Amino acid sequence: MCGIFGISDNKDASRLAYVGLFTLQHRGQESAGIVTDDGGTLRHGIGMGLVSEIFTKDALESLKGRSAIGHVRYSTTGSSHIKNAQPLVLDSYLGQVAVAHNGNLTNSDALKEELQKGGAIFQSTSDTEVILHLMAKHRGRSLEDTLAKNLPKLEGSYAFAFLAPGKMIGARDPNGFRPLVLGKLGRSFMLASETCAIEVAGGKVLRELAPGEMVTIAGGKARFRRFAPAKNFTRCIFEQVYFARPDSVVAGRTVQTSRYEIGALLAREMKGVKADLVSGVPDSGTVYALGFSDESGLPFQTVFMRNHYTGRSFIQPDQRLREFTAHLKLAPIRDVIQGKTIILIDDSLVRGTTSRKIVKSLKQAGAKKIIMAIASPPIISPCFYGIDTPSKKELIACNLTVEKIRRFIGAAELHYLGLESLVSACGGGKDRNFCVSCFTGKYNTRVDAVAKAYGLPKLASAKAGL
Fold it and tell me: Which structural domain range is residue 380 located in?
């Protein structure tokens, strides 16, 4: 999961790109980059770390130009290394082209092998570079034609922002797995992974790009084009569960509203469970706990002091960093905890190691009993569409029963939200409104090749004929 932002025809392009990426920092903390169009020359600035660390005042002033795209990265395909930082830039037959990508291509290895046989030399291990080589090999009369010819060759999830001299292009995969939103600021158009980035940068949200849709922004106008037929619209439900900011709008409602409703539904499913108070694992668990509290009548209390100078533990690139970040960021508040039975809500339970440490810390601080409540169903299958859970051996619910998971994390009770409740709270009537593959093991595209690369058996598809 990554974040992308774009701004066209604005004298403050690099500064606004900085604001957009800063707002999307929660989507990726490993690297960041900005590319600007300076009168036909693309200027490139990238680095490892946070947006505020990389883009100093001098760095932004060097990125001259009236249009820009930017990217914050959380690695799924390709290691956490400067060579994989984005946007990537290509010198092509059409001139310079930069690309920023959010998502994960499930057929990138097969495409890469085919391209290498034709003489392509890859400079990174990121799946994003595949689209640049496809563009170089299968050419059209314009950048838009070239993209329309090559984007349908890609499988998996993607939201792209492209920048070339005089134009900015956005494209969203035919399933709509990954979000891409169009906005306006005066005469300028904006692209972003979330509505919050457009609004914080001062713009007005126009609409989401539709699945299989491309928008070309040039000369102060936006032209729309369908490059592939829309398939089942299956946006990733983890946007509402964890990734998106609470003030962003997804599926027609704010993420805050969805999470509050999830908490209320969780309380209904757990009706009769006895406790002294309810709390959430900050920050994403807090809104769930507020919804639970209002529905159940149990008082809400903050049981952890969070250090906001640490990153988000789930999107750290390896398990050691995830556990260390979780340890640094949460400190129990003893006076609230001592002698209490606590319902503690977290957004998800993936590997179980962080939950185990959290439960242990509350017990050590004097809690009488911890009832763990998870605001999503058990994750039983890996995600191949942009979340770093590629192996079933990493997924505790794939290997242990709920009772064994409860014992592993040390909780007195363990409850998961039902899938129907989750989908309903997020604004869908049926699970096909969202990608829920990680909960069901049924995938919306062909994933056999990427599954095989991870040593997994043939996996089921949610669609007939795949």
Answer: 239-461
Query: CB under 8 Å to 241, separation ≥6 — which residues?
Result: 262, 284, 347, 348, 375, 376, 422
* 350 is a domain residue: yes
Mind spelling out the 3-state secondary structure of 223-290?
A: EEEECCCCCCCCEECHHHHHHCCCCCEECCEEHHHHHHHHHHHHHHHCCCCCCCEEEECCCHHHHHHH
DSSP letter, residue 300: B
Residues 295, 372 within the same domain? yes
Q: In degrees rounded to 5, what are phi and psi of residue 243?
A: -75, -45
| Statement to judge: residues 253 and 217 lie in one domain | no
Q: Which residues are catalytic?
A: 2
Looking at the structure, tell me whether residues 341 and 211 fall in a common domain: no
Looking at the fold, whether 301 and 222 belong to one and the same domain comes out as: no
| Domain boundary residue, one of 203, 231, 259 | 231
CATH number at 195 reads 3.60.20.10
Q: 207, exposed or middle or buried, with CB in 10 Å at 0-12, 13-18, 19+?
A: exposed
Q: Which residue among 193, 213, 231 closes a domain?
A: 231
Residue 366 lies in a domain: yes
Per-residue pLDDT of the chain (466 residues; tens, 9 = 90+): 899 999 999 999 999 999 999 999 999 999 999 999 998 899 999 999 999 999 999 999 999 999 999 999 987 655 667 988 999 998 888 899 999 999 999 999 999 999 999 888 888 888 899 999 999 888 889 999 999 999 999 999 999 999 999 999 999 999 999 999 999 999 999 999 999 999 999 999 999 999 999 999 999 999 999 999 988 789 999 999 999 999 999 989 999 999 999 999 999 999 999 999 999 999 889 999 999 999 999 999 999 998 877 655 555 556 566 555 666 779 999 999 999 999 999 999 999 999 999 999 999 999 999 999 999 999 999 999 988 775 888 899 999 999 999 999 999 999 999 999 999 999 886 545 899 999 999 998 888 767 766 656 666 565 533 3
Could you give the number of structural domains in the chain?
Answer: 2
Q: Which of 212, 174, 213, 170 is nearest to 193 (CA)?
A: 170
Q: Is residue 466 part of a domain?
A: no
Q: Do 224 and 244 fall within a single domain?
A: no
Q: How many residues does the chain have?
A: 466
The CA-CA-CA angle for residues 283, 326, 31, to 5°, reads 85
Q: What pTM, to 2 d.p., does this model score? A: 0.91
- Assign residue 431 the CATH number of its domain: 3.40.50.2020
